[in-house]
Amino acid sequence: MSGSSASYIFALLLIGFLLIVSVLFFGYVFTLASWAVSTKIISVLVYVAVVALGFNWFQAGQIANLKYQVTASGKGSETLFSDLYQNSPVAYLRTDATGRILHGNAAALRLCGMQTEQLVTNNLFSLIREAEVDAARALNLEQRIYAGQFVNEVEAELFVGGGSRWVLVSAFPYEHNRERLITLIDITEQKAVDIAKTEFVSLASHQLRTPISAILWNLELLTNVLGNAPADQIAYVDKVRRSTEKMNGLVNDFLDATKLEMGTFATKTGPVSLNTFMAHVLESFEAQIAGKSLELQAHIPATEVVLATDEALLHIIVSNLISNAVKYTPERGQIGVALDVVGNGVAFTVRDTGIGVPANDQPHLFSKLYRASNTKTSPTEGTGLGLYVVKQAVELLGGTIAFASTEGVGTEFVVTLPYQS
Ligand code: ATP
Ligand code: MG
User: Ligand 1 centroid vs 296 CA: distance in angstroms?
Assistant: First the structure.
């Protein structure tokens, strides 16, 4: 039972009790034959006055008690919040709009390895650097905090004590936008584990390439000497070759992904004739397109378009998009590939009339190893690495990628690359 309903019941009982006592008292006084009427009236008045005073006193007590509770709870939450801020395991910093540090809680002092006096001589923006600046985003982390935007868990490097740590930065404007509350979550350990995993996959993929190449080479020799061997033997060798080629593609995808992640993808920028490039890429898909009786509409400008870029990365981008369009479009569907000169760059468009991407899956499409839910109902092979690699490659070339898709209708990807990356 809550405190207020208990005191309500208590007040009701008290009033009931007073009523009974009053009835008994009045009855007793008025039956006393020895008392004069005036004495009886005076004693009733005195009784009423005493009860009224008592009731008043009781009410005043209740109000005082209520006031105390309100004040005490107000004080309690203030202390609670300040204790939470000060002793939270999450590092909190208060800064002004220009990033000047005004205060840090105990965890922030531990994270930065500084005392308050030293911490407040720093500017937040000179201590942190955003890990990956998204080219598609108009403002970077510093500008967003300055502008008073809510920032949620942006990965950044924190430079303290002559070294650096990895943190997730969140920011909230407060004090009528004059100050910012910054939270820093230390993810240095997770980052180290992630890097170790990436390095392991990179090493494993690299080491697997040599034996796979040897298998492919020997299969080639074997096919040459099979000559008039029975058809089923030739078919077995062919099966082995196709599976090995698939494995080779997978290993190369892993290698590309890890190289892009670790920033060790050696880019070689040079002039690339996009007309010839596109013709070669489309040629490599001819057999697959014909195999599914797909209708290809290619729109390549008649005049030569040259882009200074890394041809290997460009190949990863365009071939992955076309490969997806072919893979996720049922037989006799349509595929459109276009190259256009736009503003200060070029745009590659790949569209199809395929299975599309369910709305729920769309936000995750560029995540590593992600495959949309409808790939289970219309079975297709894939690892979910292609678009992840494409996104990394596009960003490395300073471009942007966007897509629109409707489940059961089709998908369109547009990659824009600037002339100057
Ligand atoms: P792989 O690594 O071999 O390319 P994948 O094709 O499954 O495997 P991604 O290319 O990364 O992986 O694509 C991720 C997911 O996005 C796919 O599994 C598919 O669900 C969806 N997707 C990509 N392109 C299309 C498309 N054109 N139409 C429909 N779904 C698509
Ligand atoms: Mg793919």
Answer: 19
